[in-house]
Write a structure and sequence with these properties.
single chain; 201 residues; alpha+beta; Nucleotide Exchange Factor Grpe, Chain A, domain 2; 3-stranded antiparallel beta sheet; 6 strands; 16% strand; elongated
Amino acid sequence: MSDEKSQVVEEEVDQTEVDAVEDAPVEGEQTPEDLQLLLEDARNKADEHWDQVVRLQAELENVRRRATKDVESAHKFGLEKFVNELLPVIDSLEMGLEASKSAGDDVLHKLQEGTEMTLNMFSGAMNKFNVQSVGKIGDKFNPEFHQAITVQESNEHEPDSVMLVMQKGYVMNDRLIRPAMVMVSKAPAGKPDSPSIDVQA
């Protein structure tokens, strides 16, 4: 082989080695496939983190709503024990007022007026805190607000209605504090009976 041919062959070999070195991946350099896998992994982690953020926001919103509801309930019913303590006072005033009406004496008349004024003051104070009485003669019996002490036949009252109130009931913000103790009417014998009512002693 001539020197010229030998030199051409050597140059071709050298160029092949250079091309092979250029085509080989550099150490630390990543292929497109590797980059695609890394991108998918990053997307999956981002989605997972986003789901966690959404769940945490929902939990925080639920906690906030529960706390708001608890505070509202505390504001509405925080005086329930206080109201329960006042109810016997109102009962006593009402009984005294009823007893005084049967006498014609001037002293009793003045006692009646004073008791009536005091009772009106109590009732006004209760109304300011959304406390109302329940249980009136003629009301339809409602087991949510009335406690039937006895049931009696009556021609004068509709069956299953309140014919006598032994003790008024009270509600605060539409929640029952104490049921009204009542006597309930039923149809006389021979007439269609009213629905059965549980009588509590």
